[in-house]
Amino acid sequence: MKKLILMLAILALVSPAFAQETEGASEATTTEKKKKDKPKKAKKSKKKKTRINLSNVLVIGQIDNSEDRYSLEINLTQMFTAGGVKTMPSLNILKMGGDAVILASDSMQQVVASKGIDTYVIVSVRGYDRRFKVSAKQQNFSEALEAASLFDLYRQDIVSISFEFKFFRGGEFVHGDIIKCGNISDRETVLKRFRSKVTKKIEKKWTSK
Questions:
Q1: What's the whole-number mean pLDDT along residues 14-31?
Q2: In this structure, what are the phi and psi dihedrals at residue 117, rounded to the nearest 5 degrees?
Q3: Can you name the CATH fold of 56-206?
């Protein structure tokens, strides 16, 4: 009888520990199963470099200062032409001091088309900072031409400048880019950095070569 009582006492002590151990093993198995069943996160695909395959373009400098606008358009025209792109500055189409907004009119676009051009690029100074990114808002051609020009090609004490490029075909936005130029000390270095960066962009991204 004493042996029976002793065995029952031992059993009573061992059972909770055994049950706890079994429960722990069960939880571990469940957790392990959840980890296995958890879907793996898809790897982020690398962003492919896009080309807009430029073969022709009308250059529009969106800047209030007439001297700066002339410099931008002429420099861009020379660089695009050297890159094998048929190019014309808007200053060859508009009368001196003419509002670029009229380039969105049907009659003016017919004139441009008759010269073998169907792509337009608007270039402007986005600001004197290196943190700017391409605008998420995609305007149509008319809206982009109406945008205000807030910055000059050079301002005293600036050390960097960002240019924004917006390309349009058929009145619709097709591509945008930001070119950032650093180590600026005067107007001439702005143009020097601009020419260097844009030439590389034309060769590596904007043409079909």
A1: 49
A2: -120, 130
A3: Rossmann fold (3.40.50)
